[in-house]
């Protein structure tokens, strides 16, 4: 059994997925702020509609008991009885219309709030810095924007109004019961705490047990899946017995979870019926006694029996609502955690626009660390002149991409300054910096849409002709024209119908269209074969013309033409100069080139 437990440790149910959290007023008030824009429009309509239908439901039993029974029937007044029937029918009509309007407006309100919240969260997440995305998986962000917000839907659609309605209904009924007969009211209301217990505690207990069942089932599924996939290995190592023991452990836990949940569920209905029965017995016994003693009329007794049947619904809903609130606490905690996240790269209030960027880049004693533990760049000073093509080379992890990230201001240096045209990037507006810099990455991201739209992403206001021209310059139009619908071919997200090289040509076109002052090519030519490479070398030269360009490449053949090459190691510059100068020096660069040639020779 100990072994089974060890095995189970592999399938942890993490705290991040907590389904419920304790109730928290501050959080609830913060959530309710999203209703504020509708407090003058949708909310009042829904509340009035709710009040109308609730009042009808509250007064009909009194009219039936105290007027129909005690007056009309007692006096055999048929005329009055007919009027009562007509009156109640009209009231029910109001009730019907009230319900209709309440449900309609409550749904619109809920949808609006969910829409606002999702929009707010998405635009906030979009503004967060790279550092945030470094530490969060896309999946976990997706879950918060979709599932967590969805789980608040019920709270905002029915929750708020239902709570109001149920509180009005319950307190109204209690007041009426006391007005009709305080003694009988006291006796009958004993069942309310029992009902509360059933609807909150017992129900929550049941729900949690079913959650455990689901968790156990998913563990069982994962284990089964893994077992079947690894069957050959299991058999090859003759581990069937061990495996069967593991399986038995998970299977037993699953079985126990089911038993527990079914046992608790089975208690629910009998409990509800029992509490109703207790109420009925009290009403019948004590009510009859009071009638005989002349304390209450038959009509009062009738009203009481109507009201008794009306208790369960609001109490049950309030209990359910409370449980839902605890679930909303967990979801909103996760949502607010993201909303409270501030971008690491902040814009100063008096930030300046870098107009007509020239592209002169300077690193002034820059230090940078992604986290507290490791320093990616200890102390770097360098200069890239306007219009220069600079190549960054060095082993994996030497800091090439980090330098590019600092130029685009995806991160701020921990110390020192990065300047463009003499302006410290931390004093400039983010938009003015990034809009004049283009980054072409090795893994080109293709959005779902047409090829045309994907290239136009570089400059949304570009005409079709300009898009085509850009594609032509980088030599991408050949393959685009060959696609079934040319520029209007739809590519799915990530562009699976295109080869890696084609995707890269596409990103060149995108960058050219954007016409940036600074161009960063991060391993951008790695997926292009040697033949295509030669073909686009010329195009690349066009792309680089008149701009400052930073090329990051492992394949040293692509950077031979660069004006200057920086050789990096551990975030420091080992040497810099043109290809010829560095080859002559026979230093680190020379070694790198030599080792690449040896590798090629060996192939
Ligand atoms: N987002 C990140 N979070 C934490 N550390 C990072 C992150 N990105 C890079 N690093 C670390 O910073 C150092 C420099 O990385 P960088 O990506 O700049 O290297 P590189 O020279 O571009 O490498 P490669 O050639 O493999 O792309 C490495 O030690 C790397 O582990």
TrEMBL record:
GO MF term (any one): ABC-type oligopeptide transporter activity
Gene3D superfamilies xrefs: ABC transporter type 1, transmembrane domain, P-loop containing nucleotide triphosphate hydrolases
Locations listed in the record: Cell membrane
A Pfam short name: ABC_membrane
ABC transporter domain sequence ranges: 361-595
Alphabetized UniProt keyword annotations: ATP-binding, Membrane, Nucleotide-binding, Transmembrane, Transmembrane helix, Transport
PROSITE patterns assigned to the protein according to its UniProt record, in alphabetical order: ABC_TM1F (PS50929), ABC_TRANSPORTER_1 (PS00211), ABC_TRANSPORTER_2 (PS50893)
One CC-aspect GO term: plasma membrane
Transmembrane segments: 41-60, 80-98, 155-178, 184-200, 298-315
Record CDD domains: ABC_6TM_YknV_like, ABCC_Glucan_exporter_like
SMART domains: AAA (SM00382)
Boundaries of every ABC transmembrane type-1 domain copy: 45-327
InterPro entries: AAA+_ATPase, ABC1_TM_dom, ABC1_TM_sf, ABC_transporter-like_ATP-bd, ABC_transporter-like_CS, P-loop_NTPase, Type_1_exporter
Taxonomic superkingdom: Bacteria
Membrane topology annotation: Multi-pass membrane protein
Main location, first listed in the record: membrane
Record protein name field: ATP-binding cassette, subfamily B
Source organism per UniProt: Salimicrobium flavidum
